[in-house]
Hints:
Radius of gyration: 19 Å
Distance between the termini: 40 Å
Order of helices and strands: HEHEHEHEHHEHEEHHEEHH
Number of helices: 11
Oligomer: single chain
Shape: globular
Number of strands: 9
Strand order of the largest sheet: 1-2-3-4-5-6-8
Amino acid sequence: MTPPAPWNRLSAHLAARFGGRVRKVALDAGLGTCPNRDGTAGHGGCAWCDPGGSGPDGPERGLPWEEVLRTAAAVAARRGETGVVAYFQAYTPTYAPPAALEAAGSRALAVPGVVGLAVGARPDCLSAGTLNVLQALAERTLLWVELGMQSAHDDVLRGTNRGHNHAATVRAAASLRKRGLRTVLHLIAGLPGEAPERARDSFSEAARLSPWGVKLHPLHIVSGAPLEESWRRGAVPLLSLEEYARLAADLLERLPPETLVHRLTGERPAGILLAPSWCAGKRGVLAAVAEEISRRGTRQGSRWLAESPEETAP
């Protein structure tokens, strides 16, 4: 009998829900830019973000997004897969006017084979109108909101030109929870100014916010990102694979067992990814994390369960 996986994988959850494999399709739906680029919150974007707004990287980049989505859904069907989730990824989709977001969501759901929506969001880009649209779309399909927390430390957020503080993340998570919307928190390990012990504090804070899911990836340098110049000067130390595996295991141990792990690494293609080179191999990174968890004899939720107060009878 195969032992249970040491963490609660999104892929397994979707397969159980829909009866087969479901893939995400990253899209640039043309939903505008970002308040951290146009001057509303700042200029230049977050220190790690590339000029394309961390959008899709494949050969389809630049093609009409609906064409990309239709093609991906058709390929999935030919492979015998159950469907695809349309992921509005590039820039800040929730910064768009609510009507534009609603139109994009409806057009995506009209594509045969689309079984859900994922929407990228900054904590400072969730107006009442946008929340109304997200709530309405969530009544039509499986929908989750991917909220960029990155760190719980305001000095780290300032140092990477994030353009908001952690209190904004706490408010945004509460607003999404009040609407019954599934929330996925994004975290980055190895940010400048966030030593491992401070990263573990961020992980504990993310767990405290009770997200539906979590994404973690290591800080990596991509072509055209504001951090590129500092990295080339040797001013930005990056994690080794072993260091990252330890931090990823630290996160898993702190998460509630039911939290879905959407990602434990980040992939960018050759020509865009500059460093660290080990980020190019997803399987190797996941294997290193699994090996670290096995070495510890722990799994997702081990520390969270140990540190949660025991319920007492009234």
